[in-house]
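Weekly modeling sync, notes
Attendees: S.R. (lead), two postdocs, one rotation student

Agenda item 3: backlog of single-chain predictions. S.R. asked that every request posted to the team notebook include the full sequence so nobody has to chase files. The rotation student volunteered to paste the first one in as an example of the format we agreed on. Action items at the bottom.

Example entry:
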Amino acid sequence: MSDRRFEDTRAQLERADGALRRGEHDEARTCAVVASQLAADAGDPHGQAQALLRIARVDTFVSRLRSAHRAAHRAVQLFEQAGDPAGEARSLVIYSYVASCLRRNELAVTSAIMATALAQPLGDPRLLASAYNARGIALIANGDFDRSADALDKAAECAARCGEAATFQPRLNRCYGEIVRASVERHLYSHPADGTRLEQALQACHRLAQTVRIAQLGDDAEPTPRALLAFARCIAAAWRGAADEADAQATRVAAHAARHARTSWLHAVAMWAQCEVARCRGELSASAASVRAMIDVALSVEHEQIARTGHMLASDVLDAQGRSREAIAELRALARRDIEIRRESLEHHDRVAQRQLELRRRSQQLRELEAESRRLEQWSLEDPLTALPNRRQLEQFIVAALSRGAVARRGPSIALIDVDRFKEINDRHSHAVGDRVLQSLAALLRAHVRQGDLPARMAGDEFVIVFFDADLGTARMACERLRGAVREFAWRELAPGVDVDISIGLAEATPQDTMHTLLARADEDMYRMKSVRRADDAPVR
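Predicted structure, as returned to the notebook:
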């Protein structure tokens, strides 16, 4: 990638960050989209992942949850591809949170667990706190409230290393978890809501809000925690019967929601607060109207988790009004939505499984291609008859040996081996027998060389042994052992009358030698030895 393109991508990312800090979410998203395109065109997966992470953050803030889900998922993939575990963990945090909102609970939990595992060894307490926080939210959505509380306590513990203010978000999420827990229990058992655990969780938030400037609490890219704190205070007051106090806090929630108009799901939270205030006052019709508005807003932004709670509240309020048929209809609507969400989740898992299968098929194809390439490479360097290295590999080996010898100031030595009267063997016994002779000789060569030395077939009935770090004397002793093994071999088991002997020429490399000069000297020595043997075998006149 050119430096210019890299700089352009980084410039757009910086503009996106600046717009996020100013609360200019449309501008932030536009810059992030441009950065993503620039990075994709330039083949910069890491830059594209960073841009997608910013898109996911903006889309989460303005309640474009499905878009945020897609952007975060792609960011996870690209950060993994780029080898950036911190970026991958940050993307998984958002991915998990959005999955919780969409009630893809299993996906939310597994993504948060993965984020925690990635963040753990990095030594970044803020990132680890964020991962545990996402884990806690995912477990709330999954109805596992005790484990959620443990995860959020762990998040607060990690966040404390970054300052007291950083612990506020997980503590506030503890409050939210207790609100959902009590709401579920009230719905299931038809008992008045028990706010004991909520009051206990709120105590930590009260103390923190008194000692730390509220403006410090939370991340600029996230909805203001002030609204959620007011919401938790409203619910706690409503459940203990303090209607006026609850109403005052509900008014604060509505004001914060209006101030953050782009954060649409906060409007659903404001309606939830009004529902509980009206219920506390015994104004069931007003409570029913508020919870209906809560459901409508939540569904409009696809915040399935809040919508589900709304359906439970609506059923409870309708039942308290004696409208049992409508209460049952509300539960049926909830059940239908549950089925639809499970179907969508299964479709998502099916798509993921299909992608994984496709990746596995591609990976298998790649492995097969690599294996085939290795086989072709092997065949290109291997003699097909004897399975010894061929001339091509031999030449590569000799060049390497000469280079090594120049450094070590010793060797290599080579032996050039020729099968005596091999043509006669072919003519008399057949080429098939000749092939078996060559194969047997190759086996003898393998058995009589040192580890690290190289036996190879030059061509026809010619073989070469390269002796690494060996002088001429060492090579000659090895060749005498080989000659003895050849003479003792049961050649006639291959075919009656077969008799095999070999001629060997030796040469030790000098600093001036090339591969060709070394082989030439070995060839000269072999023919000199053949001449001597022919003279010795000549009849005496």
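Discussion: group reviewed the output briefly. The chain has 21 helices and four strands.
Action items: rotation student to repeat for the remaining queue; S.R. to check formatting next week.
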